[in-house]
Amino acid sequence: MQKMPVPCGIWGLVSLVIDGPLHLRSTGNRYILTCMDYLTRYPECIPLPDMHAKTIAKAFVTNIVLRHGTPRMLPTDCGTQFLSELFQEMCRILGIEKI
User: What is the C-alpha to C-alpha distance for residues 28 and 37, in angstroms, rounded to an integer?
Assistant: First the structure.
């Protein structure tokens, strides 16, 4: 298990976890993307209709990056959506170190 680096500030080190599938909601959402700031332990939960890389990247940028700023580091699990070329490119463009 890798030791986590010390956060450089609020929303500087953010973890992403996907939960689901859950019971289908009337809104069409079946998954929850949980984004947690390592410094404050403040979580944000974002409902998702699917867990495709494009959906997750859009939700992350819209709900986290545009509201709180771009994190410097982003630990995730080894889910295929986080290992996808699209997600890796998003991290590269935003200057996020994916750990």
Answer: 27
> What is the model's pTM?
0.89
3-state secondary structure of 55: helix
Residue 73, helix vs strand vs coil: strand
Structure tokens at 4: 């986590």
Q: How far apart are CA 48 and CA 64, in angstroms?
A: 14
DSSP reduced 3-state for 45: strand
Separation CA 21–CA 28 (nearest Å)? 12
Over the stretch 48-92, which tens digit does the pLDDT of each residue have? 999 999 999 999 999 999 999 999 999 998 899 999 999 999 999
Nearest to 73 by CA among 19, 18, 11, 17: 11
Asked if 29 and 20 touch (Cβ cutoff 8 Å), the reply is no
Sheet with 43-48: strands ordered across: 14-19, 31-37, 43-48
Kindly state the tokens that stand for 23: 């019971």
